[in-house]
Amino acid sequence: ARFHGNPRSGRWELLGPRPPLAAMFADGTAPGADVESLWRSARSARCEAKSCQTGKISTAETAVQSHTSRDAGVQTDQSKDAVQDFQQEVQVDYASLLSFLQRVEDAVIKELNKNWKSRAFDGFEVNWTDQNETVLCLHTLSYPEAQDQNLQVTSVSWNATGSVVACSYGRLDGGDWSTEKSYVCTWNLDRRGLNPQRPDLVVDVPSSVMCLAFHPSQPSLVAGGLFSGELVVWDTSRTEDPVIWRTGMTDDTHTDPVYQVNWLPDAKHRNHARLLSVSTDGKILVWREERDGRLALAEGFAMVAQQIPRSAQLKKFARGEAAVGVTSLSFSHFDPRVFVVGVEGGYSLKCSTAAETLALHRTGSSVPLRAPAELAFSPHGGPVYSVSCSPFHRQVLNLFLSCGTDGQVHLHSMLQTQALVSLQLSKKYLFCVRWSPVRPLVFAAASGEGNCNQRFCSIGDVHLVDFEKSSRKPAVSIKQAAGERPVYCLEFNIKQTRLLAAGDATGTVKVWQLSSDFTEQGPREMNHLEQLASEIMD
Amino acid sequence: AEVEETLKRIQAHKGVIATIVINAEGIPIRTTLDNSTTVQYAGLLHQLTMKARSTVRDIDPQNDLTFLRIRSKKHEIMVAPDKEYLLIVIQNPCE
């Protein structure tokens, strides 16, 4: 049937023949059209639900702790057997040995002769190491607290291994009995992170320390002599209280400042070295260690003016009683009983520990003091501040140097009283002189202070003299202190032979590295010096 | 006795510091130095002489070592080699 919309009733009306009314419109509900969702069921038709679970992990708690330990040490013992004589084992056929020697003897003698006369190698020198031409300042070490108190470096010392340098602070220009605190500072130069303003160890000392000496084989022991006349030995490896021995103030102690302290090797007990101290009260005392940390007097010497031998040549200097305050001492390297002493009166004296005569000394001391002086050498024009025996020259020559306030260095042989060479190094006082440990012809001297031409000039210098180059003037003069203060002490480093430490009045220690011409022995140096000495002696 | 005479003659020569005779194994037979120094010299120079000899023969198999001299800053060491022995003389050639 066809319908059209009836505008009057708003209803659709049937177009065309009308079907029966009852069949035309009737209320009815038509069920809605449902469309089944396909995707979900299709999807579920394709998928399956599954689940999984990891298996159970088994864990367990345990703890481990080690609780026993043992220390064990290993040490090789020195073998008690002597080295076996090699000649026991060898069977020698003398006949064949003789024929061998007869065959080669001529050839060898010919070569020996050729060698003796040959000039082929004259002046021929080989350089195996890099040549370093200049003198450098490697380190400038100081302790600011001591510098604030205007303390000066009175002494420097290198330890047995050559890696630690120690310096003592005090005053050399103080004349009173000072109770000023002072310090002993050490720096380990081989340590990384070396801070030049912060010493590795600082020891507070109640009195001014005038001199220092490290033990020659135990790297941590250092001995110092004080202004009060006492001697103290410190062990730098101890952290709480480094003092291990001291002399204390007894009747035996020096009554004047101790200006030099040395360790003496003790032949009987290898490590128990003895200490020797030198002071301006004229006494030279040898101390040994006692069990309770005390140093007790083992033997002693006293220099009394009347007992000093005067030789005929020195008559004109023997006016009145010259003071016999001892300022410095040096042992001969070849005869351990012989030592040279420098005194305030300007003499240097040859002495022997084997001397028997007793000293004419007033006050009693626990050990009788002997007079050791055997020979007096020609004097300086002022007090002698330092003497040094050469480690190189054989027994016949035995050379030593002395220096004093007259600015001169005298080279003496122990065999004669007149000096072999007198060098006027500077117009200022010379405070310290030391032979080089590697080159027989080189020594260093520290200078400063003094009056030159009515003007007070106090430039501190370290002079290095090389007899091979010139015996009249220094080869190199190093200006040490920027503020023109004197240099009071210097020491060569025996293990690291290029280093030289020098301490001055501004409270700094400078470590200088020397150029290679000061540290390498030339081919015939020993002979040059013997020649030099014998030329002058004749 | 003649052995000693010969060695004394060499030792007495100008500038000679020491004389050592070692056998083919490097063991010292006669010496004018102390024990430990002699053993040191003997061992070192024996090895060096063998090395020098093999160097010469490697370069030319018909050649052989006749004498070895080592010059150092302080002295000169002379070695006279042989099949069974080695004579070492140390001289200080300072004029």
Attribute tags:
heterodimer, A: 538 residues, mainly beta, Methylamine Dehydrogenase, Chain H, five-stranded mixed beta sheet, four-stranded antiparallel beta sheet, 5 helices, 33 strands, elongated, B: 95 residues, alpha+beta, Beta-Lactamase, five-stranded antiparallel beta sheet, 2 helices, globular, WD40_repeat_dom_sf (chain A), WD repeat (chain A)
Structure description:
The complex is a heterodimer of chains A (538) and B (95). By secondary structure, chain A is mainly beta. Chain A has one domain (138-535): 7 Propeller (Methylamine Dehydrogenase, Chain H), CATH 2.130.10.10. Chain A contains five helices and 33 strands. Chain A has helices spanning 21-24, 39-46, 94-117, 144-148, 525-537; strands spanning 2-6, 11-15, 136-142, 152-158, 164-170, 182-188, 201-205, 209-214, 221-226, 231-235, 243-246, 258-264, 274-279, 283-289, 295-302, 326-331, 338-343, 348-352, 369-370, 373-376, 384-389, 399-404, 408-413, 421-424, 429-435, 442-448, 451-452, 455-456, 461-466, 476-479, 487-492, 499-504, 508-513. The longest helix of chain A has 24 residues, at 94-117. Chain B has a five-stranded antiparallel beta sheet with strand order 2-1-5-4-3, sandwiched between helices. In chain B, a hairpin with a 4-residue loop joins strand 1 and strand 2. The longest helix of chain B is centred in the middle third of the chain and has 25 residues, at 35-59. At the A-B interface, helix 3 of A face helix 1, strand 1, helix 2, strand 4 and strand 5 of B. Chain B: Belongs to the GAMAD family. Chain B: It holds the Pfam family Robl_LC7. Chain B: Keywords: Cytoplasm, Cytoskeleton, Dynein, Microtubule, Motor protein, Transport.
Strand tally of chain B is: 5
What is the helix content of chain B? Answer: 25-40%
- How many domains in all of chain A? 1
CATH superfamily placement of chain A: YVTN repeat-like/Quinoprotein amine dehydrogenase
List unreliable stretches of 5+ residues of chain A.
312-323, 451-458
Radius of gyration of chain B: 14 Å
Secondary-structure-based class of chain B equals alpha+beta
At CATH level 3, the topology of chain B is Beta-Lactamase
* The CATH class of chain A: Mainly Beta
CATH homologous superfamily of chain B? Dynein light chain 2a, cytoplasmic
Largest interface, per-chain counts?
A-B, 33 and 37 residues
